[in-house]
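Practice problem 4.
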């Protein structure tokens, strides 16, 4: 029995004090209404009305039930209204995550854009690596995330994959090139003359340098892809140093022996310089991601749209599709997103 619906019938009959008028008001047949009230009386074990020739009069038990029925219906109406707002994306909570080292301007634009687009939905944002995001999405403790590719995207829906080239942060050797190996233990042929276009470095020129790279366990596919690309382009790091804390990474670069990859938009500390890589062999790729079962969720769709806008406007990123159209050798891999 639908208790709320039967209680609504009871309240109307109590207000009309007549089954015929109540049935007309509800738009239903009187016998059907009488049967439903009898079913409710049986459910409660209480006679609610005295049926007379003049109509229906509440019993003492019926008056007590009516006093509780009206607040119950008000709460039910409020509950249905809240559920409707959540379904429409006008209210609720969205639990989302962004990867470490995402530009602060992008994070701020994401939060502000989402708040502006859906002021009734509270965005609970946290910082998580790719593997942690995948685990939380699968467990249902995360509604949406921002992932760096490549990563296993099985079971996930993706927003527009955005990208930008990575350059390299090297110690400032005073030449403006950042290629003097200085105290490096490298025995490579690195010189102060770049082999790439003016102002750019070729990856091969970094051979012998140590490389500060995020810990592999936080994004194994991306970690392996970066090292594979480095080796394919002639850069064999002396040592791969696991680290992502900005202070640590900066310290290692300023020590004179290590380099780190970063987009142009990343702030470079005094004593170091950012250099573009000839041929842009490394691309940073990001997109919103969510479980396919959440496809069509208004809050998730808004999050994905805001992520794309923030990455474009504040991260200087463009859709990978435009890069593909420009002839770069990127190809989609279903389980790993995109790779070289």
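Answer key:
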């Amino acid at each position: 029995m639908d208790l709320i619906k039967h209680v609504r019938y009871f309240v109307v009959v109590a207000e009309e004090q007549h089954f015929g008028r109540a049935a007309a008001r509800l738009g239903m047949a009187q016998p059907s209404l009488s049967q439903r009230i009898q079913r409710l009386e049986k459910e409660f074990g209480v006679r609610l009305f005295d049926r007379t020739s003049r109509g229906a009069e509440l019993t003492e038990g019926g008056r007590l039930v009516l006093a509780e029925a009206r607040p119950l219906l008000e709460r039910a109406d409020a509950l249905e209204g809240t559920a409707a707002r959540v379904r429409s994306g006008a209210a609720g909570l969205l639990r989302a995550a962004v990867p470490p080292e995402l530009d602060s301007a992008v994070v701020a634009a994401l939060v502000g854009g989402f708040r502006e687009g859906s002021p009734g939905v509270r965005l609970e944002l946290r910082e998580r690596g790719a593997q942690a995001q995948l685990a939380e999405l699968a467990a249902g403790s995360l509604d949406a995330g921002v992932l760096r590719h490549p990563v296993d995207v099985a079971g996930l829906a993706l927003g527009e994959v955005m990208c930008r080239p990575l350059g390299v942060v090297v110690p400032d050797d005073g030449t403006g090139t950042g290629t003097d190996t200085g105290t490096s233990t490298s025995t490579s042929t690195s010189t102060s003359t770049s082999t790439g276009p003016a102002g750019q470095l070729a990856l091969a020129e970094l051979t012998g340098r140590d490389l500060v790279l995020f810990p592999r366990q936080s994004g194994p596919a991306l970690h392996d892809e970066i090292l594979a690309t480095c080796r394919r382009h002639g850069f064999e790091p002396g040592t791969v140093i696991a680290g992502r804390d900005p202070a640590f990474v900066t310290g290692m670069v300023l020590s004179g022996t290590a380099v780190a990859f970063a987009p142009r938009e990343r702030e470079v500390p005094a004593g170091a310089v950012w250099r573009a890589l000839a041929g842009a062999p490394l691309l940073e790729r990001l997109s919103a991601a969510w479980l396919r079962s959440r496809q069509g969720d208004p809050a998730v769709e808004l999050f994905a749209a805001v992520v794309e806008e923030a990455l474009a406007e504040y991260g200087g990123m463009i859709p990978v599709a435009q890069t593909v159209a420009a002839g770069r050798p990127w190809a989609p891999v279903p389980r790993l997103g995109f790779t070289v």
